[in-house]
Design a protein that fits this description.
heterodimer; A: 118 residues; mainly beta; 6-stranded mixed sheet; 4-stranded antiparallel sheet; 12 strands; 0% helix; B: 116 residues; 7-stranded mixed sheet
C-alpha cells in the first residue's frame, strides 16, 4: 500500500522569505502523480502544484516549486517570497497513474501547518 | 470560486442516527469523490462515483453509502453514526474517464459533522 509522510507538523516563515516543506512517500509503482494542496481556514482544498513521476523536470508554479527526487521518494515544496496569504495547512498527496476506475483516489499526508510572520 | 458546493456546512447528530450530506459538482464534471478528514489528519478517500456508479472505494464500512444523480450531483449517506464519524466531509469533482483520466480535482468547502 502507498503511504505519504509529512514529518513537519508546523513550520513558520517570515514574510518575503523562503520556506521548504518536506514530504516522503512509499510506493512500488513506477508511474504516479504527486500533488501539494493548500487548505486555508475556509477548509477548501486548493491545488498548489502537481508533478508527474515520469517527468524529470521539477514542476514550478510562480512562487511555488518542487524538488522531486524519485529514487529517494521525496517531494518537497519550496515557497519563495512568502506572503501572508500563504498561511494555511499544506498537504502532500499521491495518486496512482492508472486505476482503471477510481481515478481520483488521493492518498494524503497528515499535513504541515504553515504560519507566515509579518 | 471552484463551483463545488456542499450542504449543510455544519451539523450535529447523535450516535445511532443517520445523516445525508449533499454535493453539487462543478458544471461539466462527471466524477465525484468523497473524503473524510478527521481533526488534525489528512483526508481519507471514502468512494468515487463515475456516471452514477460507484467505481472505487476506500477502507470504509458499508454503512457509508452514496448516490450520484443524472445531473452529477451526489449524496453521502452514513447510517448508525458513531462518535468516530465526527469529521469534515469533503466532496471533490472532476472530469475523468474510466481509462484513468487525469482531470484536476476541485474540492468543496466541506460539511462539518459532529456526532454526540
Amino acid at each position: 500500500a502507498q503511504t505519504v509522510t509529512q514529518s513537519q507538523p508546523e513550520m513558520s516563515v517570515q514574510e518575503a522569505e523562503t520556506v521548504t516543506l518536506s514530504c516522503t512517500y512509499d510506493t512500488s509503482e513506477s508511474d504516479y502523480y504527486l500533488f501539494w494542496y493548500k487548505q486555508p481556514p475556509s477548509r477548501q482544498m486548493i491545488l498548489v502544484i502537481r508533478q508527474e513521476a515520469y517527468k524529470q523536470q521539477n514542476a514550478t508554479e510562480n512562487r511555488f516549486s518542487v524538488n522531486f527526487q524519485k529514487a529517494a521518494k521525496s517531494f518537497s515544496l519550496k515557497i519563495s517570497d512568502s506572503q501572508l496569504g500563504d498561511a494555511a495547512m499544506y498537504f502532500c498527496a499521491y495518486r496512482r497513474a492508472h486505476y482503471g476506475g477510481a481515478t481520483n483516489k488521493l492518498i494524503f499526508g497528515t499535513g504541515t501547518l504553515l504560519a507566515v510572520q509579518p | 470560486e471552484t463551483g463545488v458546493t456542499q450542504s449543510p456546512t455544519h451539523l450535529i447528530k447523535t450516535r445511532g442516527q443517520q445523516v445525508t450530506l449533499r454535493c453539487s459538482s462543478q458544471s461539466g464534471h462527471n466524477t465525484v469523490s468523497w473524503y473524510q478528514q478527521a481533526l488534525g489528519q489528512g483526508p481519507q478517500f471514502i468512494f468515487q462515483y463515475y456516471r452514477e456508479e460507484e467505481n472505487g472505494r476506500g477502507n470504509f464500512p458499508p454503512r457509508f453509502s452514496g448516490l450520484q444523480f443524472p445531473n452529477y450531483s451526489s449524496e453521502l449517506n452514513v447510517n448508525a453514526l458513531e462518535l468516530d464519524d465526527s469529521a469534515l466531509y469533503l466532496c471533490a469533482s472532476s472530469l475523468a474517464d474510466r481509462g484513468g483520466g487525469t482531470g484536476e480535482l476541485f474540492f468543496g468547502e466541506g460539511s462539518r459533522l459532529t456526532v454526540l
